[in-house]
Amino acid sequence: MHQKTHARVSARSDRGGAARPRTRGAARNWVTPVAAALAVAALALSGCAQASTTPAANDSAAQTEETETVARPAAPEGELPTEFQAQLQEALERTMAEDNVPGAAAGVWIPEEGSWTAAAGLADIEEQIAVTTDMSWPIRSITKSYTVTLLLQLVADGTLNLDDTISEYVDGVTNGDRITLLQLANMSSGVAEYANEAFFAEFMKDPTHVYSLEELNAAALGEPEQFAPGTEYVYTNTNTNLLGAVIEAATGQEYADVLAERILKPLGQSGTHYILDVEEWTEPHAVGYQPDPETQHMSDSSQHTSILGAAGALVSTLDDGRVWATTLGSGALITPKLQEQRQAGHPIERPPYDLYAVGMGETGGWVGHNGEGLGFTAATFYRPETGASIVVYMNASNIPDRSHPADQAFRALAAVLADSGL
Known about the structure:
Strand content: 15-25%
Oligomer: single chain
Distance between the termini: 46 Å
Largest sheet: 8 strands, antiparallel
Shape: globular
Number of domains: 1
Low-confidence stretches: 1-5, 10-38, 44-64
Helix content: 25-40%
Structural class: alpha+beta
Number of strands: 15
Strand order of the largest sheet: 4-3-2-15-14-13-12-11
Radius of gyration: 20 Å
Order of helices and strands: HEHEEEEHHHHEHHEEEEHHEEEEEH
CATH superfamily: DD-peptidase/beta-lactamase superfamily
């Protein structure tokens, strides 16, 4: 058994003093009761499917493999053929029209074939600002794939094991002595969702409060289990935020610092940031929109990112999305055995994947991750067979029919590639 030098996180945080309060106002950073209700719906994504067996623990041999030193992967040289680009543009705009999406940025990169990037529609309806390909976008739950990659890096270097229990790192988790880190990573832990009505009732008392990761996790501690660990799969943000706490406990560093040191800096991800205080989100970036539950009118969404934590607080750019699609899909930052294990998937109701695995989803032979909520959707996928990548960012979420616009656009773009034999 490996040695642990981490300190466990306390069971409850001091809600009054753990996080840094914001001192500046923002024109678009307000929260109304309607926005709070939408936020509950956006964050409390759930779905389940029966699991026939408890997920297997990691092979300890994977810890002895070494990961290769990685550099920022270059984009394919040249542009895709004009006619092909027109087909991709039509697929993107068709999806936008179907879901009433104000604006989008998208890209397709195919090795030895070329690239296509596009900006369509409006980043800001009120100000009539057009989308550009260099804008920053919230990538929401794609953040989970970064967090789980950090976890797997710590497994690879022997700092922790996937069969460790969460109680070894965080106190107060229901069934904590039975829930493994792997079960948190593949959404089979059964932990309660922190983003519940009680949490948002507290949030509404001070919508300007910047939440710490510890505070988010505290909202779920001691809550009843959703199911026995390893018996079902339910997509829950708490799973990943607890893993964020594990990363902090195991390294003795803040999550943002570990992320920068192990992923962002090595890959040159200068446009990707872990944003808790929305005031630190620099221009240019889009405004998020979601339909009012009563009128269905597309309204500005709250941009309060700190309530997402290690499960969804990252913002990124289109080209950084390309880099992450390739890195995540190829497993460049972890060992081959761990990459193979992270791709062992299972059905899950939501988000929209064919299978969900260990911080990674699979759809039609493409692997990657989606993100959704608070006015934005995002999709970042890679096809191992060809090395192709597709990234889509859109400023609309919570569509009434539960459509995921960015995922729908990804599928439409992937269909164009399939029809062309790519």
